[in-house]
Amino acid sequence: MGRDTTLAGTEPAAATAGAPQDVLLEVEHLRAGYGRITAAEDIGLQVRPGELVAVLGPNGAGKSTLLRAISGMIRPWAGRVVLAGRDVTGARSDVLVRAGLVHVPEGRRVLPRLTVEENLRLGAFSARRDRAAVAAALEEVLTRFGALADRRDQKAGTLSGGEQQMLAIGRALMARPSVLLLDEPSLGLSPRLVAEVFELIQSLVAEGQTVLLAEQNVAQGLRVADRGYVLTTGRVTATGSAADLLADPALLRSYLAPPAGRPPHLSTAQPPAERTGEPPEYVKYEGRPAGTLSRNLDPPIHAPNPRRGTPGAENPS
Ligand SMILES: Nc1ncnc2c1ncn2[C@@H]1O[C@H](COP(=O)(O)OP(=O)(O)O)[C@@H](O)[C@H]1O
Ligand SMILES: [Mg+2]
Question: Which end of the chain has the least Cβ crowding within 10 Å, N or C?
Fold first, then answer.
């Protein structure tokens, strides 16, 4: 039951020989879960170089499980993960980091007692790059994230939730990933910070970064993504271009309409990050089961971006 510790000698995945050459990450018939719980079933997805692909669905749909199974945080029960033509199914996370696949897990998970710089340096650790390359990557990340540069020697645990998310993403960038997996980077952030995180993701993609993003807010995810996969209780129930998904009346009904009876205060609440004197979110969330986290700090769900057209306009139900 040992995990693969190296990709050396890994044969190019035979069955992908006929697949499009431009697929960077491919998942086939993936099944994964915990104990007796199957959380992801028969998942297939493809990510092409330079794409921002979103995995969408409500809390508990299996988004995190899928990302964990791709990145080696858990071992898939069945199916395959193919990275740049190589079958990497079951490879360990650190091996996958060296192969170019880096996962920023849900809930940020920066090391609170280490400084910003130390956290960033850890991002390069698995990639085992030489000193000069690490120094160059560090300067690049600090240039991109001005707020982190200002707090370079500060303990990560003292950063705000938004800054910790930037640090988590910056740490991932230190490994210069070919594919970046982002699990709900907007989780628990204020609307202003959510917008900042999405702007950052879009700027990375504009520079050529390939991203697989898990996002609970379907509208928000589709606004930035090229393509999306909608998960419902562990299965892909819809897939297509972001524009097509936004124009799908059934999907709109399921996910974009505000849930009946949603308390109005949930859309206007000031999240902890915006208050003064509150401990950083990391500290408060530490040790709590994921299901107990406050998940309703997303901005109110609006109609989709008009630039993408009026959903359902040419396809009335
Ligand atoms: N560590 C875990 N142990 C047991 N069950 C889990 C664990 N993580 C998630 N699950 C279960 O797997 C299912 C999918 O969860 P998850 O992948 O976290 O969904 P999402 O990220 O879409 O919210 C849920 O039923 C959840 O309760
Ligand atoms: Mg999740």
Answer: N
Per residue in 13-54, pLDDT (tens digit) is 544 444 556 999 999 999 999 999 999 999 999 999 999 999
Nearest-angstrom CA–CA distance, 270 and 268:
6
CA angle in degrees (0–180, nearest 5) for 186-189-193 = 85
61 lines ligand 1 (CB under 6 A): yes
Q: Look at 99 and 274; give whichever has higher pLDDT.
A: 99
* pTM, entire model: 0.79
**Measured between alpha carbons, how far is 117 from 5 in angstroms, rounded to an integer?**
28
Question: Separation of 35 CA from ligand 1 center, angstroms?
Answer: 11
Nearest CA to ligand 1 atom 5: 34
Calpha distance 256→219 (Å, rounded): 6
- Looking at residue 188, what is its pLDDT? 87
Point out the ligand 1 atom lying closest to the alpha carbon of residue 33: 12
Residues 63-122 have pLDDT tens digits of 999 999 999 999 999 999 999 999 999 999 999 999 999 999 998 789 999 999 999 999
CB of 298 closer than 8 Å to CB of 186 = yes
Q: Which of 31, 36, 37, 216 to mutate to test the pocket of ligand 1 (most atoms within 8 A of CB)?
A: 37
Ligand 1 proximity of 62 Cβ (cutoff 6 Å): yes
Return the residue whose CA atom lies nearest to atom 27 of ligand 1: 60
CA 193, CA 52: separation in Å to the nearest integer? 20
